[in-house]
Amino acid sequence: MIKPSHHANGSQQPFSLHAQLASDSHPVAEFELSSLRLMDDCNYPWLVLVPRVSAAVELIDLDAGEQALLMGEINSVSRVLKQLFRPHKLNVAALGNVVPQLHVHVIARFTDDPAWPAPVWGRTHARPYEPEALVKRVRDLRQALEN
């Protein structure tokens, strides 16, 4: 079980994943700080890191140690996407305009992807993974993370 995480005022409260993130993504792995999830949109290799810190909305809501852990996790995920997909560009963003819970998008981008060169949001309709493709994508990501 995941331990309760601290609240800005020092109180303890259990972590829970925002319902929108839960419905739009699939679990991939658990890092020291964050849960790694795959967005259910096969238009792009698109991962999301969600720090398990209750009430965190902004990066500044994490303490210095948590910020360093998150940066290391972003680096690990970025390297896996680069290794597996050889993208032209990696997009890393923590927006939170729709889902306030702190989460960081790491997206492999290609000059021929449906939204290039614009951001992925609102450009095309999400294309959910077919079940077999989802299983393969998650398995490939997990294997790459172990290496």
TrEMBL record:
Transmembrane segments: none
SUPFAM superfamilies attached to this UniProt entry: HIT-like
Pfam families: HIT
Domain of life where this protein originates: Bacteria
UniProt-listed InterPro entries: HIT-like, HIT-like_sf, HIT_Hint
All residue ranges annotated as the HIT domain in the record: 47-116
Protein name: HIT family protein
